[in-house]
């Protein structure tokens, strides 16, 4: 509806390839955009379409930095989490989701897409690149986790979300030059923050315990 003003958070915005088409398409949307890379955030801010009244970009490590320092608590309608969580260590994924939950409105949704179990990229990894179950490191040092539907559903549920859609997307990528046809497996999901949800304190408790240990 024309009168509807949505607030979106793109967690892991990169250089804004998703942010700016949305801003152009919907004149009523406001986008918070964050990324682990300060350089990526600078690219977003230098884009000609970037205007503070339509977009707010900032650097953030979702596993450590409070989103509420830049985004009002309970103010976001939709969070996009696209090929981001796979780069986070599995032990810290829940912290990232709890952090996101703090800025999401009750009834708000998380739109998720990432690498699925047995994707071609996973099958290409050598055993020496394996860091843990379904978790690998690339040659450039970046990491990649490959999700099963069951693991992802449990992860979000433990962070206080409810599953709406959670399914594998199967694609084929053809490399005509090399004569290759490879199977791609992605996981595409939608999770909702329950309307009666209370903001959790998992991230705060985690940080407080670390600070307490340093003081000791």
UniProtKB/TrEMBL annotation:
Keyword S-adenosyl-L-methionine: yes
Database matches in Gene3D superfamilies: Vaccinia Virus protein VP39 (3.40.50.150)
Pfam family, one: Methyltransf_23
Keywords: Methyltransferase, S-adenosyl-L-methionine, Transferase, tRNA processing
Family of the protein in this entry: Belongs to the methyltransferase superfamily. METL family.
Name this polypeptide is given: Methyltransferase-like protein 6
């Amino acid at each position: 509806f024309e009168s509807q003003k949505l607030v979106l958070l793109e967690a892991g915005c990169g250089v804004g390839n998703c942010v700016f088409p949305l801003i152009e398409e919907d004149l009523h949307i406001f986008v918070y955009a964050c990324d682990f890379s300060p350089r990526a955030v600078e690219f977003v801010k230098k884009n000609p379409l970037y205007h503070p009244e339509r977009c707010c970009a900032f650097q953030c490590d979702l596993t450590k930095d409070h989103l509420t320092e830049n985004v009002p608590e309970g103010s976001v309608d939709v969070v996009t989490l696209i090929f981001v969580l796979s780069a986070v260590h599995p032990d810290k994924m829940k912290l990232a989701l709890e952090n996101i939950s703090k800025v999401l409105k009750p009834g708000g949704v998380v739109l998720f897409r990432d690498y699925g179990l047995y994707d071609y990229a996973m099958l290409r990894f050598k055993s020496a690149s394996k860091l843990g179950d379904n978790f690998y490191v690339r040659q450039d040092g970046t990491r990649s986790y490959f999700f099963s539907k069951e693991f992802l559903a449990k992860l979000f549920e433990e962070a206080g979300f409810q599953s709406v859609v959670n399914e594998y997307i199967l694609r084929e990528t053809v490399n005509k030059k090399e004569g290759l046809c490879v199977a791609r497996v992605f996981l595409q999901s939608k999770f909702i923050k329950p309307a009666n949800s209370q903001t959790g304190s998992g991230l705060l408790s985690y940080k407080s315990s670390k600070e307490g240990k340093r003081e000791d």
